[in-house]
Specification:
16 helices; 9-stranded mixed β-sheet; about 15% strand; Rossmann fold
């Protein structure tokens, strides 16, 4: 019987896990690497094995592609739970998006290229290339990947299935609250494109002013917001990174590109790979209406698509991380490579 079936002890695991750079050996490692895609520094969180450490006898890994904003720190509790569900037998990695973490405290001190004249690094295609380069560089060709996508991470994962040398490494995909079609038509897409975008200069002025506040005041404001919304306070450090104007600019730039590029459902790719795709849709999702789930079931009747019955939010990592971790861990156990 797996850990997931035995108990919910992993709910407390995150509070006991430490995050550090690779020179320290703790349960969870936050490792900064520099990629060839414009030399953009990228934070990678790993459980089990470092990405530069030999995988040894491990022939499977779990790789999670985040949503937008792509800050791996928001995924610590979720993926810690997944790792525990797998009895710590399979390395678990999470990769964020290029430019979404300035990493000022990194010992590498590698500057992140500005968005000006580097738009190709931070748009949707650039983020896809970022993931392609990562897999080709760090995942051995004989290792199978259990690919978790969250939100726009699902769109990128679906695109990865079109690339032969990447696709052949993917064992199974798990799409959580997948934004893989008609993003601009969803409720939140309408708000972003029709309400926020026209006044974005005002919003930009506001967050640039906010960034000038002393850190202690910013932390206090974020903490108060967390209290009101019921967000766990252990995400304070990650949320503080999101107050960096350079990060917000790239997050917003990518979001607008998503509204333009993510339109029609890629039925061809889904049909070709439906035997290794798991879809999980929400019932309270402002980005992915329930009708998208129903239409997928009509168009691909035998797709492994599930509608949440627990009212878990799109941003599940904030309040339902452990609950989702248990479910995803069980799915991965079901689809492990048969040795």
């Amino acid at each position: 019987m797996s850990f997931c079936q035995q108990s919910a002890d992993a709910l407390q695991m995150h509070s006991n896990a430490s995050v550090s750079h690779r020179r320290f050996k703790y349960r969870c490692f936050a490792v900064l690497h520099t990629y060839s895609v414009g030399n953009v520094p990228t934070h990678i969180l790993t459980w089990g094995k470092w990405i530069e450490e030999s995988l040894g006898d491990h022939k499977e890994i779990v790789l999670c592609i985040t949503g937008n904003p792509g800050l791996p720190g928001f995924y610590t509790k979720f993926l810690s739970t997944v790792h525990e569900c797998l009895n710590k037998e399979m390395p678990v990695w999470v990769i964020g998006h290029a430019g979404h973490d300035e990493a000022r405290d990194s010992p590498y001190k590698k500057p992140v290229p500005p968005i000006e004249k580097n738009e190709h690094l931070y748009n949707l295609q650039g983020q896809l290339q970022h993931k392609i380069d990562f897999i080709r560089k760090y995942v051995p060709a004989d290792v199978k990947i259990h690919l978790i996508g969250h939100s726009i991470g699902c769109y990128l994962a679906l695109e990865l299935l079109k690339i032969p040398d990447i696709s052949e490494r993917i064992q199974h995909c798990y799409f959580l609250f997948p934004t893989i079609e008609r993003m601009a038509d969803a409720r939140n897409g309408f708000i972003l494109t029709k309400i926020i975008n026209p006044i974005y200069r005002v919003v930009q002025w506001f967050y640039r002013c906010f960034a000038l506040l002393p850190t202690i005041i910013k932390v206090w404001i974020i903490y108060c917001y967390f209290l009101v919304t019921g967000t766990p306070k252990h995400y304070l450090g990650t949320a503080l990174k999101y107050t960096n104007p350079a990060v917000i600019d790239k997050v917003w730039f990518m979001a607008l590109d998503e509204m333009e590029k993510v339109r029609n459902l890629d039925l061809n790719t889904i049909e070709q790979n439906k035997h290794r795709l798991k879809f999980y849709y929400g019932t309270t999702d402002g980005w992915v209406p329930v009708k998208y789930y129903k239409e997928l079931r009509q168009k691909v009747p035998d797709a492994d698509a599930e509608l949440c019955t627990r009212k878990i939010e799109h941003a599940f990592v904030l309040r339902s991380a452990a609950q989702m971790g248990f479910m995803v861990g069980e799915w991965i156990l079901k689809h492990r490579v048969v040795m």
